[in-house]
Amino acid sequence: MEFELSPEQREIQTLTRELAEAEIVPNAAAWDREHRFPHELIEKLAELGLMGVCLPEDLGGAGADFLSYILVLEELSRADAGIGVTVAVHTSAAALPILKFGSDEQREELIPPLARGEHLGAFALTESSSGSDAASLQTRAELEGDGWRLTGRKQWITNSAHAGTILVFARSEPGISCFLVDRDWEGVTVTGEHRKLGLHSSSTTDLVLDGVPVPAERLLGEEGKGFRIAMATLDGGRIGIAAQAVGIAQAAFETARAYALERRQFGRPIADFGAIQAKLADMATEIDAARLLVYRAAWLRDRGEPHGEAGAKAKLFASAVARRTSGEAIQVLGGYGYTKEFPAERFYRDAKVTEIYEGTSEVQRLVIARSVLGLAERAVPTPA
Amino acid sequence: MLAPVKVAVCMKEVPAAAAPKRIDPGTKRLDRSVEGALNDFDTHALEEALRLKDSAAETEVVVVSMAPERASESLRKALAMGADRVVLVSDEAAAGSDLVATTAVLAAALERESPDLTLFGQQAGDADGAVLWAAIADRLRLPMISQAASLELQDGKVRSKRQTEFGYDVLEAPLPCVVAVSDAINDPRYPSLKGIMGAKKKPQDVVSLADLGVEPGRAGEAGSRTAVLALAEPPSRGDSRRIEDDGGSAATEILSYLTERKLL
User: Fold this and answer.
1) Strand A147-158 and strand A140-144: pairing?
2) A278, A152: one domain
3) With contact defined as beta carbons under 8 Å apart, do B81 and B45 qualify?
4) CB-based contact, A264 to chain B, within 8 Å
């Protein structure tokens, strides 16, 4: 057993924490209030290499391991979970699948600008009628000449408004295929910024594909094998969302702890009262457990071992911990916690989605159950 | 582009901001077994050196430090930020060095490097001496500028604005020289991820007193001219009064307290 981070992992964690405290924490409340996507911060992250943490050096990345990337997401999310999801989708849902499933040409063309953060990556799977049942998606890919033509509407696509490269999943005969679409191609339109409960500093829009011509060389992986790409991407992606949840929980805990030590009632700090102590003890214990699950899943992935079940457990647990901890943080702050004068209510709003996106908690349980029961990892997608 | 120069930056490891600070009552020395970090003041000196390197690529930036070997972990941050290499003087016999002994060792290390420009931060965040650079310059018989709020290299000279209580002195000194920068001179950069990943490939030379030709008697406690005789807690601040707020009453109370004492 070895619980120590490597010197590099620790330095990357420290760098991200220092950057987050100086550049994100002082602005997070305003970005939240104004629903503002902070371009200038993303540029700063890019400059430091934080948009390509675990991408290879020869493709413009920093060449660090996946656990380092997870530490970055945790620290960013501790300051502002909206920044966390922007970086998470960009890295693990766009750049990493291109790295894993792409041809040499696709990797060399598309990864360097993503790794350098020149533009963002996005992942377009969800549609209005296909969420957890992703395989029932309706977007069509029709063969035309050497390539395809994409038609359909994708929903809740993080980063698509600011993206350069978007992974689009569409139904082609004989199954689902994945296409690498440039945001500025003809027929690609980003519509309607969604108003969300939380994550206001991240951008979530719909994506309309109106007969978008896609050249043959922009098919990712094999034709008809796109669903596997989507599922494999989510396997790694959910470790990132679990890290985001740990970051939110940690921030909520720190807010509650600081307040409990300072706030006096009945002539003493409320941290002296057993009821508050019990809450803080439970929060600290649960966050520790969640963090260990997340780091283990990342560690397995770095070792090239199967991590589907470990990642699902990490996300299932960490997202619930984020929701509970942020809720209890409001409780510790009492009436102040319910106001926008303190960040506790933001953490609470930001936490909820970690139980929903990159696979709902119900889907995580399904993944875990199938794994522990030795059933097929997931059902074969049925044509809609 | 400017002509390349060799810049030495003297940096110290101090206890990290979050680490507990404790003085060992036996040795009367600061407990340095806690987590360490680069002295913040020194990162301003490093940043200034890196800016010279940014404008003249061949400029070499060498970090010079004296500390136990474990400080190399903190010093790696200097390499991650962009320094070329580290010279760490590490020797059991240097433990407990006072100002006189420390400057004897660091001056020897600097003499061996013979840089064009030697930079310091204004003070160390643990001992807050703010005098080491003057003693080093004296030992090396070099001109020295302190509290530098700006720094330019021109025709073999350093031009600098020295921050004073009432304004700035504009000073010039020929190279080689020693400059102690103020913490207002710049905002130190963050190390980039590539910098962090590349830092372990950069050289960190650990040298002993013997390597520098410093007699053991000139370093450590043996070489020190001062000794700590006693340590005491700062006096308590006397009577304090706590004002609890009750629906905005605190502001009125503070106001009347200050008015009574004619402080407003």
Assistant:
1) antiparallel
2) no
3) no
4) yes
Domain count, chain B: 1
- Closest chain A C-alpha to B194 CA, distance in angstroms: 5
Q: Which residue of A has its CA nearest to B200?
A: A8
Chain B hits for A53, Cβ within 8 Å:
193
- ipTM of the complex in this document: 0.85
Question: Do residue A164 and residue A291 come from a single domain?
Answer: no
Q: Which residues contact A160 (CB under 8 A, 6 or more apart)?
A: A122, A124, A154, A166, A183, A190, A203, A205, A207
Q: What are phi and psi of B63, to 5 degrees?
A: -95, 130
* DSSP structure class, residue A127: B
**Nearest chain B Cα distance for residue A45, angstroms:** 9
Last residue of a domain, one of A204, A223, A242: A223
Structure tokens at B183: 């913490």
Q: Could you report the per-residue pLDDT of A91-114, keeping only the tens digit for each?
A: 999 999 999 999 999 999 999 999
Among A17, A84, A100, smallest CA distance to A51 is for A84
A144: three-class secondary structure by DSSP: strand
* CA angle (A233 as vertex; A231, A239 as ends), nearest 5: 110
Interface contact A63-B197, CB threshold 8 A: yes
Query: Do B193 and A12 make contact, defined as CB atoms within 8 angstroms?
Result: yes
Please report which helix (H) or strand (E) contains residue A172, including its range: strand A163-172
In a domain, B242, yes or no: no
Contact check, Cβ <8 Å, A62/B73? no
Which residue, of A120, A149, A181, is where some domain finishes?
Answer: A120
Count interface pairs A-B at CB distance under 8 A: 44
| B31-45 exposure pattern, b = at least 16 Cβ within 10 A, e = fewer | ebeeebbbbebbbbb
- Cβ pair A68, A53 in contact under 8 A: yes
DSSP secondary structure, A150-167, as one string? EEEEEEEEETGGGEEEEE
Which one is catalytic: A75, A286, A328, A358? A358
Nearest residue in B to A51, CA atom: B193
Interchain contact, A49 vs B192, CB within 8 Å: yes
Do residues A87 and A77 lie in contact, with contact meaning Cβ atoms separated by under 8 Å?
no
The DSSP annotation for B14-35 comes to: EE-TTSPP-EETTTTEE---S-
Instruction: Report the greatest alpha carbon distance in chain B.
Output: 70
> Do the chains contact at A264 and B244, CB–CB below 8 Å?
yes
Kindly state whether residues A234 and A205 are assigned to the same domain.
no
Share of chain A above pLDDT 70, in %: 98
| B117-174 per-position pLDDT tens digit | 999 999 998 888 889 999 999 999 999 999 999 999 988 999 999 988 899 999 999 9
Contact assessment for residue A94 and residue A123, using Cβ atoms and an 8 Å cutoff:
yes
Mean pLDDT confidence for A199-223: 96
Contact at CB, B76 and A7, closer than 8 angstroms: yes
What residues make up the domain containing A152?
Answer: 122-223
Do A192 and A314 sit in the same domain of this protein?
no
- Statement to judge: residues A355 and A245 lie in one domain: yes
Domain of residue B194, CATH code: 3.40.50.620
Does one domain contain both A101 and A168?
no
**What confidence category does residue B264 fall into, taking pLDDT thresholds of 50, 70 and 90?**
confident
* A positions 16-55 inside 8 Å of B (CB): 18-19, 47-50, 52-53
